[in-house]
From TrEMBL:
This is GTP-binding protein. It comes from Starmerella bacillaris (Yeast). SUPFAM superfamilies: P-loop containing nucleoside triphosphate hydrolases. Pfam families: Gtr1_RagA. Transmembrane segments: none annotated. One of its GO terms (cellular component) is fungal-type vacuole membrane. One of its GO terms (molecular function) is GTP binding. Keywords: GTP-binding, Nucleotide-binding.
Amino acid sequence: MISQGTREQKILLMGLRRGGKSSIRQVIFHGMQPIETLYLESTTKPTSEKLSSLANFVIEEIPGQVDVTNPEFESSKVFKGASTVIYVIDSQDEYLLSLQNVVQVISQGYKIDRNIHFEILIHKVDGLSEDFRLDTKRDIIQRINDDLVDIGAYDADVTFHMTSIFDQSIVEALSRIIQKLVPELSSLTQLLDMFCMRTGVEKAFVFEASSKIYLATDSSPVDAEIYQVCSDFIDVSADLGGLYGTSANTGNSDGREFSTSRFNNGSVICLTRLIKGCLLVCLCTSETDNKITLVEFNADVFREGMEKIYA
Ligand code: GDP
């Protein structure tokens, strides 16, 4: 029998042309700089990305030209087996057409599988003023929800996210979206809570190393700045690793990776490599040498806990 953990989780990436789908794929999975996406060619063929970590994900981009209302569109084939549909709405453009389209997409997907998570990205919000952002969000949510009630899909599982590739909001949104598909999320959260409590660290994340999507975190709220610092430290550590063939301040003689960095304000950030392409990154706001030893020790205990969960 194949368990949920080994089954490939299909995520569809949909939305009208020029909404930003390929840019999101390129920035997150191929390290493209956001500004370079200006010159991206529009995708005309279905394209997919694989992410193998705590679960196996395949992200399939459906080109914006595909008309879901066309009788030739094989909705049963497209939506069957999908765990999630991510729909990208360009908030800087006239979005009424997108709203009609997303409701059609939800309607078709919902008929095929009521458990599909529909994740709506109100995208490119970097171009909107703070006030206009909130008005746009309210307007889009209201219109979509009204239409879903009209078509009888009021209980579809729909979540909205404000995103931009020019800040961390897109990774944050994708992290929340993908976390819903990690079968062992609650066990990992409990382990992280225990890790933070026993070690006295403020915040801990389990990142997928290549995309920097976080697959789990402890149950305290995520602060955007702390997330940013932890995420940036992955790059710093990788750059130093590339330069010296090892990571910053690596203390282990057994080849395991443990990196730390100390800030002027006394905070310390620590990174440990886990299993399945994951990294544990945590931030301590007050620091003593003993504490770092404890973090390193408990990070090992955390990794062993993870190995047991995924054995
Ligand atoms: P697709 O047809 O949905 O795949 O759209 P593309 O990924 O080709 O993006 C269309 C345009 O939107 C490109 O010029 C991107 O640079 C731009 N774009 C994508 N994401 C953002 C964003 O978050 N903010 C802004 N301002 N522009 C974006």
